[in-house]
Amino acid sequence: MAPSLRPGKSRWRGLGQLSPWLLLVAGLLLVRFSKGAGFADAYALITRPFWPGPAQREWILSARTVEDQSRLQLLEQDNLRLRDLLELQRNGSRQDDVGAPVISRSPRGWWQQLELGKGALQGFQAGDAVLGPGGLVGRIASVTPATARVRLLTAPGHEIGVWLPRSRSHGLLVGRGSSRLTLQFIDKDPNVSPGDLVTTSPASTLLPPNVSVGVIQSLNERAVPSPTAIVQLIASPEAIDWVQVRTR
Amino acid sequence: MARLHRQPICVASALLVPLLVLGSPQWISIDGVGPAWALLWLLPWALTDGPISGAFAGLALGLILDGLSLGGVTQVPALLALGWWWGRLGRRGSQIHRSLNLGLLAWLGSVGLGLSVLLQVLIREGGSLDAFTQSWGWQTLWCQALMTGLLAPMLVSLQLLFWRRRVPS
């Protein structure tokens, strides 16, 4: 074959021969700078059938729950010891809880109440706190030997004193007929914000201390004579089949 | 002269009212508010048995239902008045048996009952209600009236049919 008269052409041909290698290097650099994203994603896609199943995840969650429960128990014991030292009411322990089935419920309507399948024979009395999953649901209004009637927190006019742990302020929670209650603050500047937790007062004598009640949804700082807030209950009476009654 | 109140089976049927109130089936409700079961029993009773029996039945039902609900507000005055009114309507002129009439009477009764409850809540709260309580009150009133008015043509007609057969006037 006769040599080419144009040296540039042979240079391009050399580059053309090199181009696969250049592409490979570019690809490798891409892999390097993307932290191996393509490989990792492909690996995830291929190995998806062999990932740890839900059973293993539940096992881990269950272990975590056991850990949380034991930690909670230790904290409760610590709390009771400290309350004894401070000579505060002691009825915050879960040992006093008695489970009771809900045999009739009317969470809406004119009378917002629950009827429980246990009563005075199990030691229930008017004023006992009733707790559902999530926190306080209401208080026992009246008892018969075998049943108890619970006035829900949502019942219009039902008032309880509450505590806001973050801002360390007190308020009066008033039922308004819906699952959103009105919180009336005592201070002019309560220093609260939406999302704050509302609990029973740690020094309460009528209700068990430190029981979660709801979460602040919105704040009306212009209300007269003091600011008010809307509180969403954590425990939903519409969906509760069993409650815990904290006897005194 | 009708004598429904002398038939034990008819009187015993009133026991269904507290049972239904306690059961409060959620599938017969609008936004969790069920019908006024007491009115669905009282309307045919009063139409068939007259004003005195109707008023007495209203009083009895009111006392039972007050016993089953939280205190503070009573249904007795409204039920007593409705029993009397429906009893007088039953005694006057031609018999009321059209579904629409029964539905309308039950709806009016439910509105009256709701207004009496709302009025008592208003008095208890010191003469003024905040926006949330007002909203709850009106919503409960209209939901209950609608449910009662919808169920009345079916349930009240059936009861009237049975009871008028037992005590032909």
Task: Describe what you observe in this structure.
The complex is a heterodimer of chains A (248) and B (169). Chain A is of the alpha+beta class and 248 residues long. In chain A, 29% of the residues lie in helices and 30% in strands. Chain A has three helices and twelve strands. Chain A has a six-stranded antiparallel beta barrel with strand order 1-2-5-4-3-12. In chain A, strand 4 and strand 5 form a beta hairpin. Chain A starts with 6 loop residues before the first helix and ends with a strand. Chain B has 169 residues and is mainly α. Chain B has a single domain, classed as Arp2/3 complex 21 kDa subunit ARPC3. In chain B, 72% of the residues lie in helices and 0% in strands. Chain B is globular. Classes of the chains: A alpha+beta (248), B mainly alpha (169). The interface between A and B is medium-sized, with 24 and 26 residues.
Produce a short descriptive summary.
The complex is a heterodimer of chains A (248) and B (169). Chain A is of the alpha+beta class and 248 residues long.
Overall 3D form of chain B: globular
CATH architecture of the largest domain in chain A: Beta Barrel
Q: Report the sheet-strand fraction of chain B.
A: under 5%
- Count of discrete structural domains of chain A: 4
Strand content of chain A: 25-35%
Secondary structure category of chain B: mainly alpha
Could you spell the SSE succession of chain B in H and E letters? HHHHHHH
Low-confidence stretches of chain A at least 5 residues in length (pLDDT < 50)?
A: none
Taken together, the total number of domains of chain B comes to 1
